[in-house]
Amino acid sequence: MEFDIHQVRKILPHRAPFLMVDQVLEFTPGQNLTAVKNVSVNEPHFIGHFPDQKVMPGVLIVESMTQAAFLCVHDPQGQDGKRCKYSLKTAEAKFLRPVMPGDRLHIEVRLVERSGGQATLEADAFVDGTLVSSARIGIMVEHLSN
């Protein structure tokens, strides 16, 4: 199953400049997901990080992986009802190589455990097939009252 940017925007509440997933290439509901973040020189964080050697901040790489994790636990049949997703924990985050403007970040997410409204996922981010970052991500999904 694939999602284009329009479908991603229907699922995630984030908007520019904080929407960090452009496309979903593969999705097996509740199991795994492969997403893409196209890194553009026009993104606002590159103004100051760093002007002479632009590098995507590690926290935004983790945010990209977390948004992909939210998509991985999404119920495509709409059985979730109205849900809100929160990041609970990022652990064991590793950054192995800088991510620069023009890179295409491929994010692979795997569900490790799900219990009630919480889930633990492992995420890896690649550029041109080279691992650039990995993390273990905990998220919470809760029903909204309205």
Quickly name the level 1 CATH class.
Alpha Beta
Strand segment count? 6
What percentage of residues falls in helices of 4 or more residues? Answer: 10-25%
Poorly predicted parts:
none
CATH superfamily name? Answer: Hotdog Thioesterase
Order of helices and strands: HEEHEEEE
- Strand arrangement within the widest β-sheet reads 1-2-4-5-6-3
Largest sheet: 6 strands, antiparallel
Distance between the termini: 30 Å
β-sheet strand percentage: 35-45%
Account of the 3D structure:
By secondary structure, this protein is of the alpha+beta class. It has a single domain (5-143), classed as Roll (Thiol Ester Dehydrase, Chain A). Helices cover 15% and strands 42% of the residues. It starts with a helix and ends with a strand.
Q: How is the topology of this model organized?
A:
Layout: H1 5-11, E1 23-28, E2 32-38, H2 58-72, E3 83-95, E4 104-115, E5 118-127, E6 130-143
Antiparallel strand pairs: 1-2, 2-4, 3-6, 4-5, 5-6
Give a concise summary:
The chain is of the alpha+beta class.
Name the descriptors:
six-stranded antiparallel β-sheet, Thiol Ester Dehydrase, Chain A, 6 strands, 2 helices, globular, alpha+beta, 42% strand, 146 residues
